[in-house]
Predict the 3D structure of the following.
Amino acid sequence: MPAVSTQRITTRVETSEPRFVPYPKPGPGAPNVLMVVLDDVGFGQLGCFGSGIATPHIDRLAAEGVRYNRFHVTSVCSATRAALLTGRNHHAVGMGVTQEAALGFPGYTGRIPRSAATLARVLRDNGYNTLAVGKWHLAPKNEYSAAGPFDRWPLGQGFERYYGFLGAETSQWAPELVRDNTHIDPPATPAEGYHLTEDLVDQAIRMVQDQQQAESRKPFFLYFAPGAAHAPHQVGEEWVTPYVGQFDDGWEAWRQRAYDRQVAGGIIPADTVLPERPPWIPDWETLPADQRRLFARYMEVFAGFVTHTDHHLGRLLADLDERGIAEDTIVMLLSDNGASAEGGTTGTLNEAAGWLGLGEDVEESISRIDEIGGQEAYNHYPYGWAWAGNAPLRLWKRYAWLGGVRTPLVVRWGDRLADRGGVRPQFVHAVDLYATILDAAGIEAPETVDGVTQQPVEGASLLPSFAEPAAEEHRLVQYFEMFGSRAIYHDGWMAVTDHVANQFDERAHLLGSHDHDTDRWSLFHIAEDFSESRDLADELPDRVRRLEELWWAEAGRNQVLPLFEFPGSMAHLHPGEFPPPTSGRYAPGGGPVQESQLPALMGGFELTARVVVPEGGAEGVIAATGDRHGGWATYLLDGRLVATVAMLDRTVRVAAAEPVPRGEHVLSVRYEPGRDPRLVLAVDGVDLSAAPLPGLLFFPNLGSSGAGMHVGRDRGISVSRDYAPPFTFTGTLSRVELHSGRPGARPAAGAELRVALAGD
């Protein structure tokens, strides 16, 4: 045993020996790391993967780096992000579903355990600065509030700085933003030309600038996750204009062109078969001309959104160049899952309404075609474009078929990569990026963190394939499961079930099994059949049986059980730290009160406000949450009390006939459910006006975006066109009280379940 050095301390400095507190350091030559996680971008939706959509900066990244054409993820965003940041399979760290559908089973809690310290935590503990910008979606939605708990927010998971949004999605024009552990307003308004992607890139550049100017000898890890290209697909019209007319010949033709470019560019094997259009995708030529124009417009906006994202990502990459650190920075760019079909068969102007099967009539969409991509819409394209965007693969996001789990991966690391510009064929998975980065940084995965023994790391380093394009595959087994859709990969073979989840009305369209007892396993030799084009299950039943048995073994090892099934699993939604309150008191001047912390509204509620109206009257917002795509607001307009409820598929507005007179008053808005539900306005206990309020008083986009209630003002996009935010209350507003009509009420079962499944 080596001798243990002892420090000498005496009464005098000259005879004492100092010992300085050490700082952790990574291995020699540890690189900076930039991980870019795009959202809902399919295998064939980037230029360097054959799309025809202009992504010159990402294409340059690919030309200077390498592309992996068999990179796999989990098929939804929360789960993939957990796998990326922990190096473990998603169920093994409690992320078997999206945060909104967290359950009371070990593989589905929505809470990464302390036994799976994140990549950010490990890098920080080894001398890195750790920065996160953009979408998080790794904290349960009932932990978004100013009361936390914060240990599942980015700063609680090893990042030192954070700027972005906590939920599944948010408006590009008026997002719900957080800086570190504090909710904040965007730095500009929609009217001033604000766009989220641009802001996120500005913030990322500033973080790198601050870090590098402070200490360029210290490496950084920047996790950059824009909301793009998740719905809502929103971008300025100048980015859409170049694509007008480019999609007029439809999804089949676009998909064929993408396939042809993929083959010509060596992105996929030359013998890849392009599977035929499934019956649930309409034949473009059979659609009426006005529908074809509508559907093409949806895709024009999506393409402009992707190109806009690429443009601003180019600014971040250019900043690395200008600082002279590009060659010393590993850049990894990927998508969290395949293209999304959440817009339904005909697309939607309000994605949140689509979750509940409340999509608008196609004729209405046609009449509002010019709103697509702008502030008046929360749009998502139809099924057909998701199918085409995953060319040449089958199905899409949320499924274990390759269209859901195989996405682009681009890696750049200067001359550390052989055959730059080439394509790597190894089967790899999201969990491998954790191990790769630690390997590059010369860091061993820790056995314990904060005294907690760490779970085994499932990922394996890709560094051998960096240096040798034909390196042997390191991953011979990988299971997949999402919302009941299951698959297993083993040494070139893939078996996948035909299970169809009960989401977005897909059971009414997709062919397949609705019960695990009737699920059928298909079999593909994907080492030779890149696109799952030939089902060999009937020819090789023994191999199917062995793969199914292997799936069950992996499922048991990774906490996949019990099998997810609808609606049974959803009876066990995680309740969070506290049940919904029955009442609350709120004052103006603070930040938003998160939707999850408000009293339940479904069973009836009453909102009261104590105000003083000055001489000459008052106006302004009393309380507001959400926007015109789903939300509610109470306000004084021309002195009169008004309430507006945007109900996804309709808007209800009720107004008092006369202004509220000068003096002190109690204003109230009351929702009375029942056989004849109505919204009632009252002043000082006297009912003044009422309006029928039929339908569903539930706002799913609030839960997925992390929106909250503002008191005394509004922000972003208003609930009503009566006013423009902030529309600050001009009288004296001492407090607002909100009382639930049914303590602990939860949304109607079917509505809540569908929204929970949709929040990805």
Summary: Residues 743-750 have pLDDT under 50 and may be disordered.
